[in-house]
Amino acid sequence: MVQAIRSARGRLSHIAQRLLGKGDATLPLTAALAAFMPPAPALAPPPASPPAAPFPPFPSSVPQSVNAQRDVTDEPPTASTDTPTHRYRAIWISDIHLGTAGCQATYLLDFLKHNESDQLYLVGDIIDGWQLKRGWYWPQSHNDVVQKLLRKARKGTEVIFVPGNHDEVARQFDGMAFGDIVVREDAIHVTATGRRLWVVHGDLFDGVVQHARWLAYLGDSLYTLILAVNRHFNRVRTRLGFDYWSLSQYLKHQVKNAVSYINSFEHAMVEEARRRGCDGVVCGHIHKAEIREVDGQLYCNDGDWVESLSALVETMEGELRIVYWTTLLDPPAPPTSRIGRRRRTATTATAVAG
User: Fold this and answer.
1) Domains and their CATH numbers in the chain
2) Which residue in 179, 247, 305, 353 has a CA-CA distance of 20 to 30 Å to 127?
3) Model's pTM, two decimal places?
4) Which residues are 297's β-sheet partners?
5) Given pLDDT bands bounded at 50, 70 and 90, which one contains residue 126?
6) What is the DSSP string of 24-53?
7) Which long-range contacts (CB under 8 A, 24 or more apart) does 331-335 make?
8) First-to-last CA distance in the chain?
9) Is the confidence at residue 292, as pLDDT, over 90?
10) What is the pLDDT, as a whole number, of residue 320?
11) Closest CA to 100 of 74, 61, 126, 66
């Protein structure tokens, strides 16, 4: 039985990879790791006789643009891109799933560019370690998200990373800081109105993840396949001039058992928040943005960045809101097709020959 399930997982993962494809934009492992390297001083003169380095330099095979740490936020300031549209007291985002084709990195970068906050909570599943184990996928836009978060931390935003089940390896670093981003197993946030909110990813209250790991992995493979269909579906919608709309989320919420599971999850979360002496909870994990009272406690879910493209924010007055970022304020330039590049190259060669 276990062997059959593993075989099914393998087939589903293979099908998903075929649907998702592996384009030229995918960066190698060394290039992706360059995003986490601290930036070198821009004007530091080279020493006359540099001492021997204790570690070998970063591999020279990394593309120059990546090795120089491309950071879209370090471009010269302009009125349209450098000034944030909104400023909040706190922002919560989760379930970004960097390392997967379903990650909506372009929309997230646009959101981070136009929204600033005193505190930024990364509430788990920021990097999808489950998918990266199956196959490497790390395009430049995922590097840009990491760089954007690191730069926000350097510029004074208090960034707290609360790991989830897909990046649970980071839980062993509880209390440590990486690039000014602090890792916490969970956190307590006090709103401007004095409410104490327990911040946690929520996977520890998911019975499937905790007691049927194989089923969680199988479900993740099926979910990846659905997201592939969702991605192509929204590509067609974009070409027709429509905003982003989640087909996968719509299908999921039509299933009766899924609705029942979400209700059970919400009750479990608020009960634990009450036990910890808090007035409510902020979590992610189930990819369903929500703010409502559950059993006399405040339940907040910040959603995700593969389906709903949502975040939870606290205004300066202490009001909590769900914001959806389904329209780009700064759309990226359309990619140049390979055919167009070949035609220009041929034209240039002809001109030189003439």
Assistant:
1) 2-34+64-72+82-328 (3.60.21.10)
2) 247
3) 0.65
4) 294
5) very high
6) TTBPPHHHHHGGGSPPPPSSPPPPSSPPPP
7) 332/106
8) 69
9) yes
10) 97
11) 126
